[in-house]
Amino acid sequence: MSSIWTQARRAARMNPSIIREILKVTEKPGILSMAGGLPSADTFPVDALKAACDKVLSENAKEALQYAASEGFAPLREWVAARVKALGMDVSPDQVLITSGSQQGLDLVGKILCDASAPVAVETPTYLGALQAFTPYEPSFISLASDEQGPLPEAFARLPHDAPGTRFAYLLPNYQNPTGRVMSLERRQAVMAAAKAAGVPVIEDNPYGDLWFDEPPLPSLSSMWPEGSIYLGSFSKVLTPGFRLGFIIAPKALYPKLLQAKQAADLHTPGFNQRVVYEVIKNGFLDEHVPKIRARYKANRDAMAEGLKKHLPAGCEWQSPKGGMFFWIRLPEGLDAMALLPKAVDANIAYVPGAAFYAANPDPRTMRLSFVTLTPELIAEGVAILGRVLGEALAAIPETTP
Amino acid sequence: MSSIWTQARRAARMNPSIIREILKVTEKPGILSMAGGLPSADTFPVDALKAACDKVLSENAKEALQYAASEGFAPLREWVAARVKALGMDVSPDQVLITSGSQQGLDLVGKILCDASAPVAVETPTYLGALQAFTPYEPSFISLASDEQGPLPEAFARLPHDAPGTRFAYLLPNYQNPTGRVMSLERRQAVMAAAKAAGVPVIEDNPYGDLWFDEPPLPSLSSMWPEGSIYLGSFSKVLTPGFRLGFIIAPKALYPKLLQAKQAADLHTPGFNQRVVYEVIKNGFLDEHVPKIRARYKANRDAMAEGLKKHLPAGCEWQSPKGGMFFWIRLPEGLDAMALLPKAVDANIAYVPGAAFYAANPDPRTMRLSFVTLTPELIAEGVAILGRVLGEALAAIPETTP
């Protein structure tokens, strides 16, 4: 059969998702999975969605069920433009493009900005799904030196020399996937000044920004250099991922090309879904709903922080995230999170090995734990098991000669 | 701003959709649009969808609103595999990939099969949306010589010599968009034998197959060469386009790569939409519903056929389609459908100039008329206006010296 079909060169670079394969493993009944970044299903506003489906199909069925504009549903675009004002952004609804989840935003950005071998800068580590979205467009990934606050401004200063023609830097300023880290105001300002000085525009991905625990979000990166930034947002973490609704906010000069890419990709995001979500959120629903998600996730975060402190062997390192969905653990020397995964699954828990999140030089000692899918009780149980698996693995490491 | 962003080479080949621009023009209130391929909104099964939304959100909300498998909802994939048996296809649910409309199927196919400059063969003329989906992957389009039954088998025989390495031929066997033509059984067999002999696999796009008026569909092209065919289907024309649901059926060897492309593009098609549609169709709903659409569209087809016969000036040529949504008109010498469009819009009607549907050597004398959006009465009115516009244009052509 391989003789009938000739695949594109880019197809050879696309590989099965490790996360996807892991999610399959974690379908084992009863497993305590801290792997997938699945929002707690208890937070889905089922009644509000049910009422909105009924209303849209009672009042606007013909429009909601027909083909629609590629840009998206106008009132939803207006809502988004108004909403991001809180992040210091001053954008027109004409700059908002509704996407089929923010994953599609990444695909469209890759499609219009990436050429084979042209550099694309990413954080170290970075969101695996972004690497997967950009990879088919064959960029050359540059892994920006990063610390617990995100990428270092100095790393941008080196780009014009080390990677001339870098098309963009892909950044997640809030509760980053996978590390949970957040960029301080000073870091944001320094990074954006350095990006601008280096002439490297920024793709800002902000799926977790609303999930803060103690302090509301800082101004977005895009607010600091609007004409050099594309902002990606999502309804997956504050309402439901099952509706696949996200958005792009783009400079006016780039918008038409993103719109053409969107139209070629799937004509438009389901109009029904857009109208239902707009119906739910239009009168301030999120202002009541999201605090409940925050409170729940904060309690989960606390449960995991307590469990990690109690159960993880000496030598493990982590920071307690100030929002979002993830802890990022670095294991003691001699341990390999990927190699340990089968043992963990045997012991009825799952996590994501951190190596998958690196564009280059993966650190095998890292892992990502989600604290949002399980209850605090099950988190405590899962982390206890993790502590035991790690302890046994450490004990099995042969003594090295000094 | 252009100095900040460097666009991908492929972006330069992407252009605003003429159809999209035309749809904008036709938003003029009260215009009689025969332009867009919009299914009649009166056929949308609103009550069935409302009941299904309620049922899914009452019984399976947590699953329907959560992230889901990239392959699609398993029962829906099983339904598709069973459904295409009627077209002579013997496929496993494992070969079915649910897509965000069949437009996304085209994008995914382009992504894994098209390289810059590699030939892709298309009918003359062909579906504009497919040209738009493939174009970002920079293929070199080959326009297959075609007649009123579709592409000529001889055109395939020439491909190995004229366009070696042709990645695939993109074919629409049933009530083709834009021409409305259908491939006879003999033509299907001859084309698939010729494609196989030439070593050129086939992408079969069948959004209109269920919309037959007198004779049920012939066996699919894919049934004649399963390992050399990808089949694309859609729920847009038999249920609603607003849910954006389509599917790909692929040979098992190609499926994993399409799945990776799907995951990178948008993770998965909305699980909610898949479950709602499955809930509507699982017990034979389409067997009652689609005949109603057929009867309506047949009456519309008859109204347009009668109007064209009555009102179009001598020298216009067309065939009456046996299904689908479109008439394809060829105007007398000296007329240009694109140049006439502003006059038509002034006269309160719209159509799509046929030139947009050619990969090469557009025929400016062609136009596409949809007969499914308007009622028979408005079709009669619209065609009468078209006849007047064409008559006036013909009268304005200066006499040429013999």
Cα distance spanning the termini of chain A: 56 Å
- Give the strand content of chain A: 5-15%
Oligomeric state: homodimer
- Counted up, domains of chain A total 2
Counting helices, strands and paired strands, the structural category of chain A is alpha/beta
Report the CATH architecture of the largest domain in chain A: 3-Layer(aba) Sandwich
Please list the strands of the largest sheet of chain A in the order they lie side by side.
Answer: 2-10-9-8-7-3-4
Shape of chain A: globular
Radius of gyration of chain A: 22 Å
Largest sheet of chain A: 7 strands, mixed
Binned, the helix content of chain A reads 40-55%
CATH class of the largest domain in chain A: Alpha Beta
| Count of runs of 4 or more consecutive helical residues of chain A | 15
* Secondary structure: number of strands of chain A: 14
Mean pLDDT of chain A: 95
SSE string of chain A: HHEHHHEHEHEEEHHEHEEEHHHEHEEEH
Q: Largest inter-chain interface? A: A-B, 84 and 85 residues
Stretches with pLDDT under 50, minimum 5 residues of chain A: none
InterPro entries (chains A, B): Aminotransferase_I/II_large (IPR004839), Class-I_PLP-dep_aminotransf (IPR050859), PyrdxlP-dep_Trfase (IPR015424), PyrdxlP-dep_Trfase_major (IPR015421), PyrdxlP-dep_Trfase_small (IPR015422)
Pfam family, one (chains A, B): Aminotran_1_2
GO molecular function, one term (chains A, B): transaminase activity
Keywords (chains A, B): Aminotransferase, Pyridoxal phosphate, Transferase
